[in-house]
Specification:
By secondary structure, this protein is mainly alpha-helical. It has helices at about 5-10, 20-30, 35-45, 55-65, 70-80, 85-95, 100-110, 115-130, 130-140, 145-160, 165-170, 180-190, 195-205, 210-220, 225-235, 240-250, 255-265, 270-285, 285-295, 300-315, 320-325, 335-345, 350-360, 365-375, 380-390. The protein is globular, with a radius of gyration of 27 Å.
Length: about 400
């Protein structure tokens, strides 16, 4: 969404085009820009479409995506007669933001009616939060179950290790679709039942890219690089998940050259693949290539910055590590700990202690690294004093 688009809506005023309003709200949901969302909403209230139910429902969704549950709720409360779609959108917003207790309250006490979307949303939310029994109870209580609900319960069973129950549900599912087969395949895969996963894969009437990726992941997670490779080569279409799964499988098996060749052949390199390759290059001592991959990244998250920082630190290149550390747009406990461990292992106690004292949050790894540095350098009294200052300790301490 652009400022020009919002300006155009403002120019149209009361008689603004409905399709433009809908398009802008959807765009704002995608961008998750709350300040733009509030500005857009205020302009929509001045149009003749301010009471359009479809548009109002999209506004609820927009605020949910932008993280403002309070405003999403306010839009619903302002509706003259919220429909089931309105309630489901609000319910989903609370679930997606991790507010399960409030979602349960909305579902149980506020919604005038439920449909399969409502039931399935709650079933999946309970499963993902670790409440398998609640998921199972909801599934059994559903007045009507569609294929989506059956698939969600199969996935919940797989996630919680109830493979036999997952298979029972799969066999009982009326009107199985490709998602049903994928859910059962994934349930077997998640629990290490590779032969069963393969039998499902071989029996699927139609294989989507998700199906191929599920089988690829099954082999990769089990450490079967040859099996993963065979599936990867046979795939008619590959997406980022396919490439990243195969690269990760190669790395986990210690086949770094294969990982590098796969990365080089990857049509569109994403953040995950690039970060993995920084780690790979660091592990094989190719710091120059790690830096080239890092420099070529169009976008970097904290994980990518930390990967490059740890590469410099583990190689003993403290100058470039510190230069990168200072450039980082944000730091987390991993960033601070990487630098501290590097200094401590090199015996640079003054640098390590100064950094430790500057840390906003200290991990147990950081405490242990400095403790070990004091001990190795013969500062046993300081090490003992430091040990007694530790908020917690483990077997390493």
């Amino acid at each position: 969404m652009t400022t020009r688009s919002i300006d155009l809506l403002e120019q149209q005023g009361y008689h603004a085009d409905l399709q433009l309003c809908l398009q802008l709200v959807k765009s704002c949901s995608h961008s998750r820009d709350l300040s733009q969302a509030k500005k857009l909403h205020s302009q929509i209230l001045g149009t003749k479409h301010s009471r359009n139910r479809h548009l109002e429902n999209l506004l609820i969704e927009m605020y949910g995506k932008c993280g403002s549950l309070e405003r999403a709720r306010a839009v619903l409360d302002d509706l003259e007669e919220p429909n089931i779609f309105s309630w489901n959108i609000l319910l989903t917003a609370y679930i997606e933001r991790g507010h399960l207790e409030q979602a349960k309250e909305i579902f149980a006490s506020e919604m005038p009616q439920h449909n399969t979307v409502s039931w399935t949303a709650m079933l999946t939310a309970h499963s993902q939060s670790g409440n398998f029994q609640d998921s199972w109870g909801l599934f059994q209580s559903m007045p009507r179950r569609n294929t989506i609900a059956w698939n969600a319960m199969i996935a919940a069973c797989g996630h919680h290790g109830r493979v036999a129950l997952a298979r029972l549900l799969f066999d009982a599912t009326p009107g199985k679709n490709i998602a049903s087969w994928n859910a059962m395949l994934t349930a077997y895969s998640q629990n290490g039942h590779i032969p069963d996963a393969r039998r499902i894969f071989d029996s699927v009437p139609y294989r989507s890219t998700v199906t191929w990726n599920a089988m690829l992941t099954a082999y990769a997670d089990a450490g079967h690089v040859a099996g993963a490779g065979a599936v990867f080569v046979a795939m008619p279409d590959r997406d980022h998940v396919s490439w990243n799964t195969m690269i990760q499988a190669s790395v986990m098996a210690g086949e770094f050259e294969l990982a590098k060749e796969l990365f080089a052949a990857m049509p569109e390199k994403d953040l995950i693949a690039q970060t993995t390759m920084i780690v790979v290059c660091s592990q094989i001592g190719d710091l120059g290539q790690a830096k080239r991959v890092f420099d070529a990244m169009e976008r970097r998250d904290i994980v990518a910055w930390n990967a490059m920082l740890q590469s410099f630190a583990s190689a003993g290149d403290f100058d470039r590590a510190m230069e990168l550390f200072e450039r980082m747009p944000e730091r987390d406990v991993v960033s601070w700990t990487a630098m501290l461990v590097a200094y401590a292992e090199k015996g640079l106690l003054d640098h390590a202690r100064a950094l430790f004292d500057s840390m906003p949050h200290r991990s147990l790894v950081a405490w242990n690294a400095l403790l070990a540095a004091y001990s190795r350098s013969g500062h046993l009294e300081e090490a003992e004093r430091f040990f007694h200052q530790m908020p917690s300790c483990n077997v390493i301490s």
